[in-house]
Write a structure and sequence with these properties.
CATH architecture of the largest domain: 3-Layer(aba) Sandwich
Helix content: 10-25%
Shape: globular
CATH class of the largest domain: Alpha Beta
Distance between the termini: 46 Å
Number of strands: 19
Number of helices: 8
Oligomer: single chain
Structural class: alpha/beta
Largest sheet: 7 strands, mixed
């Protein structure tokens, strides 16, 4: 896809907003009094009269190839929706340029592009006209739009009486069925029910399969993983990361969780210790992938334990937690009938091996502990850093969403009874 011509070309894009600015009310006696009181309040503080600005976007340079499906992720307020508004020509950039090649359809907010006094039927034709379609072209797609929205009985009702979910149903149905070259979709899909969200994702995938370009903003990482082949991570209005979706989302999830994990750090407080974990890595991993799992081959985790005083009898444990903090696997040094460990002072590698670790893509937490047998004394309780990043390609059909936590290949044999 790298050789495909760009559908979107962004150069040095930035958007600045003024915050704390005052707009006069005026026009009425009540407004006049409000303006006078506000002026007195603002005059009491010279600082409040100084204009303040915030950059919602800054220095964005990017080419989006035709036919690609790009996800945009990031925390609230980092500029995701602002970027889509600029691309949709709803707002102008403060600096830089954004060039789009082709017809654009967008679904950014509930009710965007609808006229409340018009019926659903009339708004379909209105949106088609805004998108540059003739009435005959809308006529050809009309039945598909109505069937997808499942709002046939409400077509002749003014949309001002629609619920937010009904708005989204009709808005997405129109945007996705008018043959756009570029489809821009914001988090607004979250308003719909699960069945509708699934159909929307399938429709966006269908649009992408026909060589069109999709830009999808969402906080639902499952949807991003399923639909997008590449993802942009925005932070403070700038591109923090851009690359294959599995890798970018895993890094985003890892940092968003802040390395936090259930429980505390136990006996690691203080400088004095008898035994302490120092580091971990995937045993035998190539350079740059020491903490990354990218296949379903046997895997072993090497944990380095620093022992300062001889341990006559001890045992260790390791656990893996998913991004939500749920325990999904645990092992111990005495698994398989192995007895207690006798360790002299020095550094020791404890290597836990598994036939495979079939996890869906994401960032996982490793927790390691080590005990002295006498009195079951905890010597170290460690949340390993960095986290384990799983970036496996889905083993299931690409149209299927991840269900559960396992990425386990499934065999099939057909026999005649």
């Amino acid at each position: 896809m790298s050789g495909a011509p760009p559908a979107i070309s962004i150069r040095g894009l930035g958007k600045r907003y003024r915050i704390g600015s005052y707009l006069p009310t005026g026009g009425t006696l009540r407004g006049w009094f409000a303006d006078r009181l506000s002026a007195k309040a603002r005059a009491a503080s010279a600082e409040s009269n100084k204009p303040r600005y915030i950059w919602a976007l800054r220095d964005l340079t990017l080419d989006v190839p035709t036919g690609s499906v790009i996800g945009i992720i990031g925390r609230n307020g980092v500029g995701k929706s602002t970027l889509l508004k600029i691309l949709s020509r709803i707002t102008d950039p403060t600096e830089g340029t954004a060039e789009l090649y082709g017809k654009v359809a967008s679904l950014l907010e509930v009710g965007t592009g609808f006229h409340g006094e018009l019926t659903g039927r009339e708004n379909i034709y209105l949106n088609g006209a805004i998108s540059g379609m003739t009435r005959a072209e809308v006529d050809r797609r009309f039945d598909e739009i109505v069937a997808f929205s499942e709002l046939e009985q409400f077509l002749d009702t003014p949309v001002k009486r629609y619920s937010s979910g009904m708005y989204v149903r009709l808005g997405f149905a129109v945007a996705a069925h008018l043959d756009p070259d570029i489809l821009l979709v914001d988090e607004v899909l979250a308003v719909g029910d699960l069945s509708f969200q699934r159909r929307c994702l399938n429709r966006m995938n269908d649009v992408a399969q026909t060589g069109r370009t999709v830009i999808f903003v969402s906080h639902q990482m499952t949807a991003i993983r399923r639909l997008c082949n590449r993802t942009i991570w925005l932070e403070a209005g700038r591109i923090r990361d851009f690359g294959p979706t599995g890798e970018v989302v895993a890094r985003y999830e890892s940092e968003s969780l802040g390395g936090a994990a259930p429980g505390g750090s136990g006996s690691r407080e203080g400088a004095a210790y008898k035994a302490r974990y120092l580091s971990w890595m995937r045993d035998g991993a190539p350079a740059g992938e020491a903490h990354v799992l990218s296949d379903l081959a046997p895997v072993a985790f090497r944990l380095v334990l620093d022992v300062r005083e001889r341990i006559a009898a001890g045992y260790g444990g390791i656990e893996i937690f998913d991004p939500e903090g749920k325990l999904i696997w645990s092992g111990a040094s005495y698994d398989g009938g192995r007895g207690d460990l006798a360790l002299d002072p020095g550094k020791h590698a404890l290597i836990y091996s598994l036939p495979m670790l079939p996890l869906k893509p994401g960032a996982y937490k490793l927790h390691a502990s080590f005990y002295e047998r006498e009195g079951r004394k905890l010597l170290d309780d460690w949340w390993a850093a960095p986290e384990l990043i799983v970036s496996l390609p889905p083993s299931s059909h690409p149209d299927d969403e991840w269900q559960g936590i396992l990425n386990l290949p499934c065999g099939l044999r057909v026999e005649r009874e």
